Amino acid sequence: MTEISAAMVKQLRDATSAGMMDCKRALQETAGDFDAAVKLLREKGMAQAAKRADRETSEGKVDVRIDGSTGAIAAVGCETEPVSKNDDFQSFVVKALDRVHVQGEDAVAALETERVDLAAKLGENIQIIGAKRMEAAGDEVLSSYVHPPGKVGALVRTKGGDPQAARSLALHLTFARPTYSTRDEVPQELVDAEREILSNAEEVLSKPENVREKIVEGQLNKRFYGESVLTEQTWYRADEATGTVAQVLEERGIELLDYAWYSVSA
Q1: Looking at the predicted structure, is the pLDDT value of residue 50 above 60?
Q2: CA distance to 23, 43, 93, 121, per residue, from 50 (Å)
Q3: 1 in a structural domain
Q4: If you compute the radius of gyration of the chain from its CA atoms, what whole number of angstroms results?
Q5: Full domain range(s) for residue 193
Q6: For 52-71, b where at least 16 C-beta lie within 10 A, e where not — what string?
Q7: What's this model's pTM, rounded to 2 decimal places?
Q8: What's the CATH code of the domain at 124?
């Protein structure tokens, strides 16, 4: 059996960032062949990363960058707060944002090998939760907001109105976190299911039959559309406005062209 020296283990660890014992076992299994040990560690890392893929990522970081007429947002999830503060994890978030900013959201696919390696190194499920790139043309404006400590953020593209008011929309997105932009985007089967749930609720069944439908529609508008549809949500700051997002944007002369928000927290 090939003798595995401490220097060999250190060399492999420096090259792969794997644990000392993992490096020693890999060298033992490959009879001291450095390149084969590196390959073995990578294969094991990929297998471990696949096993971790189903584990919840309730921590991480959301980052946004606006440079001239181009903006990008990227969200990377992990399992624990200490890992979210790890230098290697933070560097990966920056790299993902760089790729998206220069090449677009599809470019994150090129980081898959690095993501798997990072997951193996840190021992957690690491996932790119979402990414988007936007370009502003003419008098369009890009605005963003990331709520400290960086677990939720938004990027918006608007036209007209005051830039600060447009940034307030980004703040609203991080607070209200809509699922849809408008009512037209909501799948009909989802609306039907919600209507059925409301129709069978005790508070509705206890009312006279001739008013139940009206009550259900009112609740559907307020509880369902009013929570999940951006334009129908109540503006996040009652001291600024009491109307819906659509009303506030119209009053301020802002046209919403595109937006994206991501959160890494549960």
Answers
A1: no
A2: 20, 11, 20, 13
A3: no
A4: 25
A5: 187-228
A6: beeeebbbbbbbbbbeeeeb
A7: 0.77
A8: 3.30.479.20
